Amino acid sequence: MIVDFHVHSTASDGTFAPRDIAADAARGGFVAIALTDHDNCDGIDEFLGAETGLKKVAGVELSIEPGVGFDKFHLLALGIDPANESLKAFLKSILDGRNARNERIVGNFRRIGIEMVDVPKGARPVEDYAHGDVLARPHFARWLIDNGYAADIGDAFAKYLLPDSPAETRCYEVRYHPSQEESFRVVHGAGGLCVMAHPKYWRREWKTTGPDYAAAERELARLKEAGLDGLEAFYRANSVEENVSFSHIADALGLIKSAGSDFHGANKPTIPLGMEVSESFVAPLLERLGLV
User: Fold this and answer.
1) Which domains does the chain have, with CATH numbers?
2) Does residue 36 contact residue 59 with C-beta atoms inside 8 Å?
3) pLDDT of res. 118
Protein backbone atom coordinates (compact mmCIF):
# COMPACT_ATOMS: atom_id res chain seq x y z
CA MET A 1 0.00 0.00 0.00
CA ILE A 2 1.08 3.60 -0.54
CA VAL A 3 1.29 6.13 2.30
CA ASP A 4 3.29 9.24 3.10
CA PHE A 5 3.63 10.79 6.55
CA HIS A 6 6.23 13.46 5.71
CA VAL A 7 5.09 16.01 3.13
CA HIS A 8 5.63 19.76 2.62
CA SER A 9 3.41 22.23 0.78
CA THR A 10 3.43 25.91 -0.15
CA ALA A 11 2.54 26.60 3.50
CA SER A 12 6.27 26.18 4.17
CA ASP A 13 9.00 25.32 1.66
CA GLY A 14 7.19 23.05 -0.78
CA THR A 15 5.90 24.03 -4.21
CA PHE A 16 2.53 22.20 -4.29
CA ALA A 17 -0.60 23.63 -2.66
CA PRO A 18 -2.08 21.54 0.18
CA ARG A 19 -5.24 20.70 -1.78
CA ASP A 20 -3.15 19.59 -4.77
CA ILE A 21 -1.09 17.25 -2.61
CA ALA A 22 -4.26 15.62 -1.32
CA ALA A 23 -5.64 15.34 -4.85
CA ASP A 24 -2.42 13.82 -6.21
CA ALA A 25 -2.37 11.28 -3.39
CA ALA A 26 -5.97 10.31 -4.08
CA ARG A 27 -5.24 9.86 -7.78
CA GLY A 28 -2.24 7.73 -6.89
CA GLY A 29 -4.30 5.34 -4.81
CA PHE A 30 -2.73 6.30 -1.47
CA VAL A 31 -4.21 4.85 1.71
CA ALA A 32 -3.12 7.74 3.95
CA ILE A 33 -1.10 10.94 3.78
CA ALA A 34 -0.01 13.57 6.31
CA LEU A 35 0.77 17.23 5.71
CA THR A 36 3.80 18.16 7.82
CA ASP A 37 4.90 21.67 6.95
CA HIS A 38 7.72 23.26 8.91
CA ASP A 39 6.69 24.96 12.15
CA ASN A 40 3.14 25.87 11.08
CA CYS A 41 -0.33 24.48 10.47
CA ASP A 42 -1.43 27.11 7.95
CA GLY A 43 -2.14 24.60 5.19
CA ILE A 44 -4.02 22.05 7.28
CA ASP A 45 -7.57 23.34 6.77
CA GLU A 46 -7.14 23.41 2.99
CA PHE A 47 -5.53 19.96 3.06
CA LEU A 48 -8.18 18.33 5.25
CA GLY A 49 -10.96 20.04 3.32
CA ALA A 50 -9.90 18.60 -0.03
CA GLU A 51 -12.59 16.28 -1.39
CA THR A 52 -10.78 12.96 -1.54
CA GLY A 53 -11.45 9.45 -0.33
CA LEU A 54 -8.12 8.89 1.37
CA LYS A 55 -7.19 9.17 5.04
CA LYS A 56 -5.62 12.58 5.74
CA VAL A 57 -3.54 13.41 8.82
CA ALA A 58 -2.86 16.86 10.28
CA GLY A 59 0.81 17.24 11.12
CA VAL A 60 3.72 19.61 11.51
CA GLU A 61 7.51 19.17 11.36
CA LEU A 62 9.43 20.77 14.22
CA SER A 63 13.16 21.42 14.47
CA ILE A 64 14.02 20.76 18.11
CA GLU A 65 17.09 20.40 20.32
CA PRO A 66 19.04 17.41 18.98
CA GLY A 67 20.60 16.31 22.27
CA VAL A 68 24.21 16.11 23.42
CA GLY A 69 26.45 14.66 20.72
CA PHE A 70 23.84 15.05 17.98
CA ASP A 71 23.29 17.75 15.37
CA LYS A 72 19.77 17.67 13.90
CA PHE A 73 16.46 16.45 15.32
CA HIS A 74 13.32 17.00 13.27
CA LEU A 75 10.15 15.91 15.03
CA LEU A 76 7.04 14.94 13.07
CA ALA A 77 3.93 15.71 15.12
CA LEU A 78 1.21 13.53 13.59
CA GLY A 79 -2.51 13.62 14.32
CA ILE A 80 -2.47 16.99 16.05
CA ASP A 81 -5.36 19.37 16.66
CA PRO A 82 -4.14 22.51 14.86
CA ALA A 83 -6.58 24.64 16.88
CA ASN A 84 -4.98 23.67 20.21
CA GLU A 85 -4.04 26.92 21.94
CA SER A 86 -0.84 25.62 23.55
CA LEU A 87 0.33 24.31 20.18
CA LYS A 88 -0.46 27.62 18.51
CA ALA A 89 1.54 29.55 21.12
CA PHE A 90 4.40 27.07 20.81
CA LEU A 91 4.50 27.42 17.02
CA LYS A 92 4.40 31.22 17.36
CA SER A 93 7.55 31.12 19.52
CA ILE A 94 9.28 28.95 16.93
CA LEU A 95 8.21 31.27 14.09
CA ASP A 96 9.56 34.26 16.02
CA GLY A 97 12.89 32.45 16.34
CA ARG A 98 12.89 31.63 12.64
CA ASN A 99 12.19 35.26 11.72
CA ALA A 100 15.03 36.47 13.93
CA ARG A 101 17.35 33.98 12.23
CA ASN A 102 16.19 35.17 8.81
CA GLU A 103 17.05 38.76 9.69
CA ARG A 104 20.58 37.63 10.53
CA ILE A 105 20.82 35.72 7.24
CA VAL A 106 19.70 38.80 5.28
CA GLY A 107 22.35 40.82 7.12
CA ASN A 108 25.00 38.26 6.27
CA PHE A 109 24.10 38.43 2.57
CA ARG A 110 24.18 42.22 2.73
CA ARG A 111 27.71 42.09 4.15
CA ILE A 112 28.93 40.09 1.14
CA GLY A 113 27.25 42.48 -1.28
CA ILE A 114 23.95 40.68 -1.94
CA GLU A 115 20.86 42.74 -1.11
CA MET A 116 17.70 40.64 -0.77
CA VAL A 117 15.24 43.08 0.82
CA ASP A 118 15.83 46.63 -0.45
CA VAL A 119 15.76 45.57 -4.08
CA PRO A 120 15.25 47.79 -7.18
CA LYS A 121 11.73 48.65 -8.26
CA GLY A 122 10.17 45.74 -10.12
CA ALA A 123 12.40 43.13 -8.49
CA ARG A 124 11.10 40.65 -5.91
CA PRO A 125 12.45 40.80 -2.35
CA VAL A 126 13.18 37.46 -0.74
CA GLU A 127 10.15 37.59 1.55
CA ASP A 128 7.90 37.45 -1.53
CA TYR A 129 9.12 33.91 -2.17
CA ALA A 130 7.27 32.60 0.89
CA HIS A 131 3.62 31.73 0.31
CA GLY A 132 2.75 32.11 3.99
CA ASP A 133 4.47 33.14 7.21
CA VAL A 134 7.36 30.68 6.96
CA LEU A 135 10.39 32.00 5.09
CA ALA A 136 12.84 29.12 4.87
CA ARG A 137 16.24 28.45 3.32
CA PRO A 138 14.76 27.02 0.08
CA HIS A 139 13.11 30.41 -0.46
CA PHE A 140 16.51 32.10 -0.08
CA ALA A 141 17.89 29.54 -2.52
CA ARG A 142 15.18 30.28 -5.10
CA TRP A 143 15.90 34.01 -4.82
CA LEU A 144 19.62 33.35 -5.37
CA ILE A 145 18.89 31.27 -8.48
CA ASP A 146 16.51 33.84 -9.95
CA ASN A 147 19.02 36.63 -9.38
CA GLY A 148 22.01 34.83 -10.87
CA TYR A 149 23.91 33.97 -7.70
CA ALA A 150 23.44 30.20 -7.91
CA ALA A 151 22.86 27.63 -10.64
CA ASP A 152 20.36 25.48 -8.76
CA ILE A 153 19.08 24.62 -5.29
CA GLY A 154 22.08 22.45 -4.45
CA ASP A 155 24.52 25.13 -5.58
CA ALA A 156 22.74 27.80 -3.51
CA PHE A 157 22.86 25.69 -0.36
CA ALA A 158 26.47 24.63 -0.90
CA LYS A 159 27.70 28.19 -1.46
CA TYR A 160 25.67 30.11 1.09
CA LEU A 161 23.17 28.25 3.25
CA LEU A 162 24.90 25.38 5.03
CA PRO A 163 26.96 25.29 8.24
CA ASP A 164 29.93 24.10 6.16
CA SER A 165 29.53 26.53 3.24
CA PRO A 166 32.81 28.33 2.34
CA ALA A 167 33.69 30.93 4.97
CA GLU A 168 33.80 33.77 2.44
CA THR A 169 30.20 33.16 1.28
CA ARG A 170 28.61 31.43 4.26
CA CYS A 171 25.41 33.18 5.34
CA TYR A 172 23.95 30.31 7.38
CA GLU A 173 22.69 31.04 10.87
CA VAL A 174 21.54 28.70 13.64
CA ARG A 175 17.98 29.27 14.82
CA TYR A 176 16.02 28.69 17.99
CA HIS A 177 15.19 25.07 18.79
CA PRO A 178 12.73 24.20 21.59
CA SER A 179 13.68 21.50 24.06
CA GLN A 180 12.78 17.87 23.53
CA GLU A 181 10.75 17.77 26.73
CA GLU A 182 8.65 20.84 25.89
CA SER A 183 8.12 19.64 22.32
CA PHE A 184 6.90 16.20 23.42
CA ARG A 185 4.61 17.75 26.03
CA VAL A 186 3.02 20.24 23.63
CA VAL A 187 2.51 17.69 20.84
CA HIS A 188 0.93 15.17 23.19
CA GLY A 189 -1.25 17.92 24.66
CA ALA A 190 -2.50 18.66 21.15
CA GLY A 191 -3.44 15.01 20.68
CA GLY A 192 -0.48 14.15 18.47
CA LEU A 193 2.17 11.48 18.18
CA CYS A 194 5.88 12.35 18.37
CA VAL A 195 7.85 10.69 15.55
CA MET A 196 11.52 11.35 14.84
CA ALA A 197 12.06 12.22 11.17
CA HIS A 198 15.01 10.98 9.07
CA PRO A 199 17.22 9.60 11.88
CA LYS A 200 20.06 9.16 9.36
CA TYR A 201 20.62 12.94 9.61
CA TRP A 202 20.75 13.01 13.41
CA ARG A 203 24.53 13.40 13.30
CA ARG A 204 26.13 15.40 10.52
CA GLU A 205 29.03 12.95 10.16
CA TRP A 206 26.63 10.10 9.35
CA LYS A 207 26.15 11.56 5.87
CA THR A 208 29.63 10.27 5.04
CA THR A 209 30.24 7.49 7.59
CA GLY A 210 26.76 6.01 7.69
CA PRO A 211 24.67 5.84 10.88
CA ASP A 212 26.09 4.55 14.16
CA TYR A 213 23.15 2.29 14.95
CA ALA A 214 24.32 1.41 18.45
CA ALA A 215 24.55 5.09 19.41
CA ALA A 216 21.19 5.77 17.79
CA GLU A 217 19.51 2.93 19.67
CA ARG A 218 20.92 4.06 23.03
CA GLU A 219 19.66 7.62 22.58
CA LEU A 220 16.33 6.51 21.12
CA ALA A 221 15.76 4.36 24.20
CA ARG A 222 16.22 7.46 26.35
CA LEU A 223 13.94 9.51 24.11
CA LYS A 224 11.22 6.86 24.30
CA GLU A 225 11.25 7.20 28.06
CA ALA A 226 11.00 10.99 27.61
CA GLY A 227 7.96 10.74 25.34
CA LEU A 228 9.02 9.81 21.80
CA ASP A 229 6.35 7.64 20.18
CA GLY A 230 7.81 6.62 16.86
CA LEU A 231 10.59 6.61 14.28
CA GLU A 232 10.54 7.38 10.56
CA ALA A 233 12.16 4.03 9.83
CA PHE A 234 11.41 4.15 6.09
CA TYR A 235 12.62 7.37 4.47
CA ARG A 236 12.94 8.18 0.79
CA ALA A 237 16.67 9.01 1.01
CA ASN A 238 17.51 5.91 3.07
CA SER A 239 19.37 2.96 1.64
CA VAL A 240 17.70 -0.43 1.95
CA GLU A 241 20.14 -1.23 4.75
CA GLU A 242 19.18 1.95 6.62
CA ASN A 243 15.47 1.18 6.29
CA VAL A 244 16.00 -2.33 7.64
CA SER A 245 18.30 -1.23 10.47
CA PHE A 246 16.10 1.61 11.70
CA SER A 247 13.07 -0.69 11.49
CA HIS A 248 14.84 -3.24 13.69
CA ILE A 249 15.70 -0.53 16.21
CA ALA A 250 12.10 0.69 16.29
CA ASP A 251 10.84 -2.86 16.83
CA ALA A 252 13.39 -3.51 19.57
CA LEU A 253 12.40 -0.37 21.46
CA GLY A 254 8.65 -0.59 20.89
CA LEU A 255 8.53 2.57 18.79
CA ILE A 256 5.84 2.98 16.14
CA LYS A 257 7.28 2.87 12.62
CA SER A 258 6.48 5.55 10.06
CA ALA A 259 7.35 6.08 6.40
CA GLY A 260 7.88 9.42 4.70
CA SER A 261 9.24 10.86 1.48
CA ASP A 262 10.04 14.42 2.65
CA PHE A 263 8.32 15.62 -0.51
CA HIS A 264 8.91 19.30 -1.39
CA GLY A 265 7.89 19.37 -5.05
CA ALA A 266 10.30 21.32 -7.25
CA ASN A 267 12.47 22.25 -4.26
CA LYS A 268 13.53 18.59 -3.99
CA PRO A 269 12.90 17.46 -7.57
CA THR A 270 14.31 13.95 -7.18
CA ILE A 271 11.90 13.05 -4.37
CA PRO A 272 8.45 11.83 -5.50
CA LEU A 273 5.38 11.72 -3.31
CA GLY A 274 4.51 8.43 -1.64
CA MET A 275 6.13 5.45 0.08
CA GLU A 276 5.18 1.84 -0.62
CA VAL A 277 4.94 -0.21 2.56
CA SER A 278 3.34 -3.42 3.75
CA GLU A 279 0.07 -3.40 5.64
CA SER A 280 1.79 -4.91 8.68
CA PHE A 281 4.39 -2.11 8.67
CA VAL A 282 1.90 0.75 8.76
CA ALA A 283 -1.04 -0.80 10.66
CA PRO A 284 0.17 0.17 14.17
CA LEU A 285 0.62 3.81 13.11
CA LEU A 286 -2.79 3.94 11.44
CA GLU A 287 -4.32 2.45 14.57
CA ARG A 288 -2.66 5.00 16.88
CA LEU A 289 -3.88 7.77 14.59
CA GLY A 290 -7.44 6.43 14.79
CA LEU A 291 -7.58 5.66 11.08
CA VAL A 292 -8.65 2.00 11.32
Assistant:
1) 2-86+179-288 (3.20.20.140), 92-161 (1.10.150)
2) yes
3) 94
